[in-house]
Design a protein that fits this description.
About 40% of the residues lie in helices and about 20% in strands. The protein is built from 11 helices and 11 strands. The strands form 2 sheets. Strands 1, 2, 3, 4, 5, 6, 8, 10 and 11 form a 9-stranded mixed beta sheet that branches. Strands 7-9 form a two-stranded antiparallel sheet. Helix 1 links the parallel strand 1 and strand 2. The radius of gyration is 19 Å and the shape is globular.
């Protein structure tokens, strides 16, 4: 646990990272405005990562007071977050959002309250899809055994047993607050103390696993990730499970993350476990064939 005293953030920064998000960013920004009525001071930064569809123009029209900046190219999610945090200046906490997130009315209040719990560095919400179905956004620390479990029986089935899967699929867990190893990075409220101590997000991941890396580094620095079911957000979802290129990147970033925390021998076994899962599924989907080629 961190020794730093915790308090409810009064000044809040929000970073939204866009990439060809013109069709969806306006609704995201509107939901931020609607959920921030109790925040004493809010600064919004929209960072565009190489869009070609007028994402920044759409953001400026929806939120004229927002700080908007372009990275000039598609530099990735972590690079956008880091640029946004720098642009915000000093705030008590920073909310990181995908543009396909929609905040519900009391979500910010509940997340801010969670940061006041001693030792908490990151607060994450309950994530639901457009139909209101809970998304399995909570995760356990990556291990070799969990990679084997997911390879053999799949992530959802393996997740029913703590030792066998990263994904937390126990429905009851999503109904109660608690501490987790990490959570998907579509929506995260991070205290300034945690940001200052942990440092910048690692831009080498580009996309996927950067939130895992940040959460694990936060844990090493003495901060916990606190899940807040009272804070609910809607996530429209991405293409990682349908795009061969993105799924291969996700898989390779899982391997790279593991490498940074384990020996070469352990990482070789982990790579083998990932490859096993792709071999078993390659005949049925292009995404798995792309991931297998990348691993080989």
């Amino acid at each position: 646990m961190s020794d730093d005293p915790a308090s409810t953030p009064e000044t809040l920064g929000v970073v939204v990272v866009t990439h060809n998000s013109a069709a969806i960013v306006s609704d995201c920004l509107a939901s931020i405005s609607a959920a921030s009525s109790e925040v004493a001071s809010l600064t919004l930064a929209v960072v565009d990562s190489g869009s070609s569809d007028g994402s920044l123009e759409a953001a400026s029209a929806a939120a004229p007071d927002a700080v908007t900046l372009s990275l000039g190219s598609n530099a990735g999610y972590a690079a956008g977050i880091n640029a946004g945090v720098r642009a915000l200046g000093p705030t008590d906490a920073v909310l990181v959002l995908n543009p396909d997130i929609r905040l519900e009315a009391d979500s910010l209040r509940a997340l801010r309250s969670a940061l006041a719990v001693a030792g908490t560095g990151i607060a994450v919400p309950r994530i639901v899809d457009e139909r209101g179905t809970v998304q399995y956004s909570l995760r356990r620390r990556p291990t070799f055994l969990r990679a084997v479990g997911e390879a053999v029986v799949g992530g959802t089935r393996a997740g029913r047993v703590s030792a066998m899967g990263e994904m937390i699929v126990d429905e009851a867990t999503y109904d109660r607050p608690g501490v987790v190893d990490w959570a998907t990075g579509a929506a995260m409220l991070i205290s300034r103390t945690c940001l200052d101590k942990v440092g910048a997000w690692d831009e080498s991941f580009f996309l996927y696993s950067e939130e895992t890396d940040f959460a694990l580094r936060a844990a090493d620095a003495g901060f916990s990730v606190r899940y807040v079911p009272e804070a609910s957000v809607v996530h429209l979802g991405g293409e990682a499970m349908t795009s061969p290129r993105l799924y291969a990147l996700l898989t390779m970033n899982r391997l790279e993350l593991y490498r940074r925390h384990h020996s070469r021998l352990a990482s070789a076994f982990y790579r083998g476990a990932l490859a096993l899962g792709e071999v078993l599924r390659a005949p049925f989907a292009r995404t798995h064939r792309a991931a297998l080629r990348a691993l080989i």
